[in-house]
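Q: Convert this sequence to structure tokens.
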Amino acid sequence: MSLIKLNNNSIATGFGKVGQVVQSVLTTKVASSSTSFTDIGLSVAITPSATSSKILVSCSLMSGSGSGVSNNFYQMLRGSTVLQLPQQTRNPDTVAAKSYVSQLLDSPSSTSELTYKIQCKAEANEFFVNRNGSNTQNGYSTITVIEILA
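A:
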């Protein structure tokens, strides 16, 4: 049984149990000059056990830029449905990549297999994933989904 303490000191119980956890790790270096959102190979599939389940989606993206003066963007999707406004990344240092983290709670109302993924695009020049401007490996990226049972 889950316990959550509320602001008025009352206790809520009986919800929020974890059904399953699935994670995908991308270690491959990615570079693209696409100015349209592009799949980068970071995706994960989960099959909810009930239509009342919620899915907590967490992404840690190691991103770099080919130019210190341009913005890059990433977005999280369920299938072809965009789940969040595009997130901006800007790294003035082209010899390093930085980690960007996003989380959201999705209510898919489904018991079919669902695929969550990350897409990126460049404003200008290039965006990098898991590498820097010198093509040196800089970490890895992950996407994790957690089924929260109602």
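The chain has no helices and 13 strands.
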